[in-house]
Each structure stands twice: as C-alpha cells, then as structure tokens.
Amino acid sequence: MQKIFALLRNKYFKFSFAITIYILWVIWLKDYWFFLGIPIVYDIYVSKKINWSPWKKRNKKNSAIIEWIDAIIFAVIAVTLINIFLFQNYKIPSGSMEKTLLIGDHLYVSKVSYGPRIPNTPLSFPFAQNLLWDDVPSFLTWMQWPYKRLAGLSEVKNDDIVVFNFPEGDTVALEKSEQSYYGIIYEMANNLKEQNEKIGIKYSDSELYNDARANVWKDNTIVYRPVDKTDNYVKRCVAIAGDTLKVVKGKVYINSKPQKDIPGIQYMYQVTTNGTPMNFKILEDMGISEKEIYFTEQGMIIPLTHENLGIIKTFRNVVSVVPMFSEPGQYEFRNFPHDQRYPWNQDYYGPLYIPKKGATIKINTYNLPLYKRIIGHYENNKLEVKDTTIYINGKPASEYTFKMNYYFMMGDNRHNSLDSRFWGFVPEDHVVGKPIFIWLSLDANKSFLGKIRWSRMFTKVKA
C-alpha cells in the first residue's frame, strides 16, 4: 500500500497521467496549437522552473491570507469546471413556462444529460453570462473554439424541458437588451406597415424590414455575442430534428399526432361575470396571481390550465369563459418566418419541417424564408439570391443538406411565451442542458420567509 501511495505522489507519474489527459483533450478538440502547452504541463509537474502560483512562496510557510487566496482560486477553477462539464444553476426570470415552472424557481441544470459543450469563448470572467456591468462584456473574442460536445446520457427528446442559448441573442440592442433585437425590428416594421396602409402606401416586407433595421441601428448601440454568451432560455422541446410540426387552435401536432396532455400548459381566456367581483383569494389558491390578470370592459383575461378552466366554470358569478385563440389564416408579421406567404400565428402554425443533420431538402425562393437563417448564419454559408436563383458559397443551389440537428421550442404558457413560433429553430450547438430539479423557489410578491415556496423545494422538474 505504501508503494502505491509513493507512486501516486511521484512527479513523473502525475506528469504522465496529466499529459495523457491533456493530449487526448487536444486531439478531441482538434485545435493542435494547444500542443504548445505540453512544456507548461511538464514544468508544472516535473521541472518546476516557473512558479505557476506566484502568490505562494515555494520554500517558506505561507501566511493565512495567501492560503485563503489559494483556496479561493482553486474554488473558482473547480466551480467553473463543474459549471462547464456537470451542472449549473438557472433562475426562471419570466412566466413563459407557467404553470410548469414558476418565476423565481432555481433549477439544477444537468450538463451531462445531453453532453457538456466545450466553451466557444474560453476567455471569459467566471460566473458571468455576457455582461460584467452596464455594457461591459464579460468575455474576450480573441480565442474562439469550434462547437464540440461530449457524449451525453441521452439525446433531446420530444416534450423535454431544455435550457438553451437564445438563438436571436447573437445581436443585441444594448438600450433594449431585455427585448429580442430582431423582435424590435419586426415590431417597428409592423408599425411602419400599419402607418403606411392608413395613407394608402404599400411596401414589401423586405423594404419595411430594411427601413426598421436602419432606424434601430440609428437609435441603439448594437453588439454581437458568441453562441455560448447569449442569454439562457428554458422552454419545452415540442419537436425534434426530422419532425413535422403543426399547431391547430393552440394544440401541437407532431407528424400528424397530437402532443401528449401536459398539466401545466395554459391559454388565455376571456372570463365574464354577472357584475360581481372575482374572489382573488380563491384564484391565488389556484396558482393564479393578480398580476397575471388583464382587466377589460368585457371582464377579465385570465391564463388557465385545463384543470383551472374546469374549476372557474363552476363559479356562480361566471357567465362565460371564452378562449382567446387567433383565427386560422390570420397573418401575424411577428411570427416566424415573417413572410406573408406563410399566414401563421401563435395558434395556427405550420406545417413546418424541423431540419435533421444529414437530411437533404429541395430549396427554392418559396421555402427559403424558413431555412435561410440556418443556411446562412447557423451553418456559416454565403447565401445569396439573384433574380430567382439561389447561390450557396457562390454556386447555384436547388437543394441543401443540413449539418446540424434543430429543435422547435415552445413555452407552456402558450399565449405569453416568446418562443420558436416567433424566432424559429434552436440549433443543437445552442443546447445547454436539462433541468432536473428545483432546489429553491422564491415568490417575489411575498415578503420575508413567505417568499419561499416550500412545497417546490427539491422537487423534480416534470416533463
């Protein structure tokens, strides 16, 4: 046993073990410039010519302050590696997943479920997603690594709840960073369209988009962010690569089959009473916050799950409960792919094919709006359209083979979720991990210990 311990303490054994792991990592990463780091590994374990921990004295006892600094640095490195390869914390900031996940839920997000990614932007400040403060970025783009993912325990499946990097977060208007840059443009383009129609002027969607984009650039500071430094979102994956999705009256269909019933899914309803007020204490007991309710001349608009819909219909003062669904064929400019040839809205959407790695499709000027961001941006091709001919990397193209898998994400709060219906596909290199359980849940509307939702503590996230 003593010989084994002696071997484990031997500097050459430590070096051999470390250099083997290092070389395998470089080969897997396929960035062979990192072989230049071999002398550093050798010096750390064998020659020790350079003090790689300059805050520590080599031949004297270190003070308590130095020992604390050493411990903090080790802890930062250890937690950073844990966040990259094992798990990280994620806090639910919005109500797009109500009632499955609540605002204030803190999630344990497993990186090993789908396989941990190697950071695209390794030169970054620990524990900061994209900003240190104000408009100061937390990362440097001097070094960019290609997309790499270790093998995971499983693949993304239909109806999984997934944390991912926001696809439209690659471009941000800092003055309106809480909003999607592209969403700002589409909203402004829609406003321009309505103004022009009132005075009898008609422009194409592309002309309106270009005018709106110019205005956004004039009034805002625009910055770009790498994939791993865009904001984290959490949604339900309703369609995986190779699926065909369709939404009919708010109901999701995958390959012509209805999505399984999920208790937390809710829609907006117009609730009309006989003139007497609703009992908000009862609504709160049903999990409905007063802040979620919109008051109108006709009554109230309330988000309801299927269970809560049944309960509220039994109230004596409720006269009618009407779902707030859009009409089929009602074109919404803000919905992906933002093209009048696709008159889709959040309740009537598709059919839409979700691209699968290796699959080849025919492309033309009609279906190009669906896949142009994938071809030109996510998969780094030069995409051009001249007259009616599509050019990819300078060559005429009538078909395209996808290089990655893609997913379609939707929030369970179907009428109050910014999701794939508005900004399109989520590429596989944007997938962060899978929420496993809720380790803390805080209600911002309560005070002191009342903030803690004890019943949700350490509960499993149910897909």
Topology:
Blueprint lengths: L1 H8 L1 H19 L8 H10 L16 H22 L1 E5 L13 E6 L20 E3 L2 E2 L23 E5 L5 E3 L7 H18 L6 H15 L2 E3 L7 E8 L4 E5 L2 E4 L2 E2 L7 E8 L6 H6 L8 E2 L4 E6 H7 L5 E6 L25 E5 L6 E3 L5 H11 L4 E4 L2 E4 L2 E2 L2 E3 L4 E5 L9 H4 L2 E2 L3 E11 L17 E2 L3
Antiparallel strand pairs: 1-2, 2-24, 3-4, 5-8, 5-24, 6-7, 8-22, 9-10, 9-16, 10-11, 12-14, 12-15, 13-14, 17-21, 18-19, 19-20, 22-23, 24-25
Describe this entry's structure for a reader:
- With 463 residues, the chain is α+β, with helices and mostly antiparallel strands.
- The strands form seven sheets. Strands 1, 2, 5, 8, 22, 23, 24 and 25 form an eight-stranded antiparallel beta sheet that branches.
- The longest helix is centred in the first third of the chain and has 22 residues, at 64-85.
- The chain is 26% helix and 24% strand.
- It has ten helices and 25 strands.
- The mean pLDDT is 89.
- It has helices spanning 2-9, 11-29, 38-47, 64-85, 181-198, 205-219, 280-285, 306-312, 368-378, 420-423, and strands at residues 87-91, 105-110, 131-133, 136-137, 161-165, 171-173, 222-224, 232-239, 244-248, 251-254, 257-258, 266-273, 294-295, 300-305, 318-323, 349-353, 360-362, 383-386, 389-392, 395-396, 399-401, 406-410, 426-427, 431-441, 459-460.
- Among the domains are: 2-85, no CATH class; 251-323, no CATH class.
- Helix 2 runs antiparallel to helix 3 and helix 5 (181-198) packs across helix 6 (205-219).
